[in-house]
Specification:
Length: 72
């Protein structure tokens, strides 16, 4: 199912959530509070937008790996 909508998933998510998904993801990163240099695995990462936010939190010495089974 997600493979079929992957090319437009971010836009669809923005429309359906009225843009709130961005706030939810920022709040997730805040609550997780990964320290600089942390290693994070994002399973079922979708388009990787949360993984990118996490990468910003862990910084240049951290590592974020995102994996997903769906593909466009």
């Amino acid at each position: 199912m997600f493979s079929a909508i992957a090319p437009r998933y971010d836009l669809t998510n923005t429309v359906i959530s009225a843009g709130l998904h961005r706030r939810w993801k920022r709040e997730t990163v805040r609550l997780l509070a990964p320290p600089p240099g942390a290693r994070v695995l994002d399973v079922c990462c979708g388009t990787g937008d949360l993984a990118r936010l996490l990468a910003g939190a862990v910084g240049a010495h951290g590592l974020v790996i995102g994996v997903d089974f769906a593909a466009p």
